[in-house]
Amino acid sequence: MTDGSPLQSYQVEPHLFVVLGGTGDLARRKLVPALRRLASLGVLGSRRAILAVARDADLDDLGFREWVREALRESGAPEEEIDRLGDARLFYEGLPKGDRGDYARLARRVREIEQQCELPGNRVFYMALPPRVFPEVVEGLAETDLNEGPGWTRLVVEKPFGRDLESARRLNETIHRHFDESQVYRIDHYLGKETVQNLLVFRFANALFESQWNRERIEEVQITVSEDLGIGSRAGYYDGSGALRDMIQNHMAQLLSLVGMEVPGRFDAESVRQEKIKLLRSVSPIEGENVVRARYTGGEVDGRQVPGYMDEPGVDPRSTTETYVALALGIDNWRWQGVPFYLRTGKRLDRRLTQIAVRFREPPVCMFESMGACETHSNVLLLTLQPDEGFALVVDVKVPGEPFELRRIPLDFFYKQAFEGIPDAYQTLLLDVLTGDQTLFVHAEEAEASWDLFGPLLDPDSTPQKYTPGSWGPVEADALLGRRGHRWLDPVDHPDLGEDS
Questions:
Q1: CB 354 within 8 A of CB 390
Q2: Average pLDDT for residues 84-98, to the nearest whole number?
Q3: Domain 191-359+443-496 sits in CATH 3.30.360.10
Q4: What DSSP letter does each residue of 296-362 carry, written as one string?
Q5: What is the spatial distance between Cα 478 and Cα 58, in angstroms, rounded to a whole number?
Q6: Nearest to 267, CA basis, from 183, 200, 202, 190
Q7: What is the 3-class SS of 343-408, one letter each residue?
Q8: Which residue of 13, 271, 275, 382 is most buried, as measured by CB atoms within 10 A?
Q9: Residue from 15, 189, 251, 443 carrying the catalytic annotation
Q10: What is the DSSP letter of 290?
Q11: How confident is the model over 450-469, as pLDDT tens digits?
């Protein structure tokens, strides 16, 4: 590990990391590369092992070790780092049937590996699996006593957590029959992004902004998560999900809660999570007139034709799934009463962007009217989470010379200019799992509060509006803000901020 690395302060205990779905796409693209980076930093220690579990009964330890090497090469890992995880610490176990006999064999294999690698019984079970099988996997682990062991046991659950409030409650009930909430890590990779975590630092470590973070100073808040690609080959998942389930209910609910939450008593998992839950429960019920659902049509983007959503392979011809959602909501508490929050997300939009725009109130009087500069502007704070991570505060300055003229410019900061690199979100979250820090993970009550808020907006019987690929969405979304006297603060409105901000 590089001297002076902040990760030197982490103490990861000896452990076995079990990946259920260990040869799937998530493991290949995210989990294995993230574990390799942690191993390269020396954080994981030497007393550790990875056990991949999947349906393939023909794969063995040697085959899995070669699979890991291929996955790391695909991820761009330096050749000298390919073996960093160590073949002697990589194992595979097939569960072709997923019945009790398979889980009993898995339990025996877990104990054998722990004995072979001299591990004390600390275990992570990461469910990198389709959500529909979460309950049966939890039951299978519990039936063979893998829900508790000689050391600590932690269960990692990928999103989406349920399809609606009822299914989320059932899943929580299943998990809580066998695992304590302190063992459960509901993972949302957005929360692992350094720039998302920096929202808390930005707000609570800088008194300048926290003192202005209220209805007296802020006119509106906009949260945008846009993608420039379509669904690609993901129709099997996406057509049964849509933008509201895929993005609004989890990722954007998390961003909303971090932007709007009250100052926690201390920076620990319980304090932060409780403030997030309070914020979600303070959101007023969202009326149907404040929601716009749409999906992209076919058209030309950057000189090439792209298919519309209904023409994507695998999409049900009767589908009513949306690829875009915009909504307006209000928070019924002392800090935010009367301040509209606008959320929008979609595919095949103008660009890939995750950004929070906070527009402050305009000056109450036109101070420079006598100088011929009567126009007043709001200050705008842009917090960009991807791709060009950083922030910009848009302010008015006087243009040198005559006549008297004001111009808006950004006071900005970009991570890539100040730091060498930003850790991958999964790298951060996996390290938190291994060290037992639940701060960046979703609590059971938080998951249910989010579904309670956004679940009523699910409407399988309505036909979505349409929008042109490469645009910022349908005209109905513009009207949603227009009737409140606002408009979307698109990046094109601020050309001085650069292409991605």
A1: no
A2: 89
A3: yes
A4: E--EEETTEEE--GGGSTT--TT----SEEEEEEEB-STTTTT-EEEEEEESSBSS-EEEEEEEEPP
A5: 55
A6: 200
A7: EEEECCECCCEEEEEEEECCCCCCCCHHHCCCCCCCCEEEEEEECCCEEEEEEEEECCCCCCCEEE
A8: 382
A9: 251
A10: G
A11: 999 999 999 888 899 999 99
Beta partners for residue 123, in sequence order: 16, 153
What string of H, E and C letters represents the secondary structure of 431-482? HHHHHCCCCCCECHHHHHHHHHHHHHHCCCCCCCEEECCCECCCHHHHHHHH
* Cis-peptide, bond into residue 160, ω within 30° of zero: yes
Residue type present at position 368: F
Q: How far apart are CA 50 and CA 38, in angstroms?
A: 13
Rounded to two decimals, the pTM is 0.89
Average pLDDT over residues 103-114: 96
DSSP 132: G
Residue 496 has pLDDT above 70, yes or no: no
Token digits for 282? 């303070």
305-333 pLDDT per residue, tens: 999 999 999 999 999 999 999 999 999 99
Q: How far apart are CA 67 and CA 62, in angstroms?
A: 9
| Residue 251 known to be catalytic | yes
C-alpha–C-alpha distance, residues 42 and 165, integer Å: 41
Task: Give percent of the chain above pLDDT 70.
Answer: 92
Q: Check if 6-158 and 191-359+443-496 are the same fold.
A: no
Contact 382, 355 (CB under 8 A): yes
- Tokens 């309070």 belong to which residue? 278
Q: Give the integer Cα–Cα distance in Å for 116 and 86.
A: 14
Domain definitions of the chain by residue range: 6-158, 191-359+443-496
- Both tokens assigned to 374: 């009567």
314 vs 425: CA distance, rounded Å: 30
Closest CA to 423 of 436, 440, 438, 411: 440
pLDDT digits (tens, 9 = 90+) for 279-291: 999 999 999 999 9
Backbone φ and ψ of 346, nearest 5°: -175, 165
Report which of 449, 451, 447, 466 is spatially closest to residue 158, judged by C-alpha positions: 447
Handedness of CA 342, 346, 351, 356 (dihedral sign): positive
Cβ atoms within 10 Å of 493's Cβ, excluding its own: 13
Q: Tokens for 88, please give them.
A: 């002697």
Residues 6+ apart with CB under 8 A from 498: 388
CATH number 3.30.1120.10 given to 6-158: no
Q: Which residues contact 366 (CB under 8 A, 6 or more apart)?
A: 374, 375, 376
Q: How confident is the model at residue 4, as a pLDDT?
A: 42
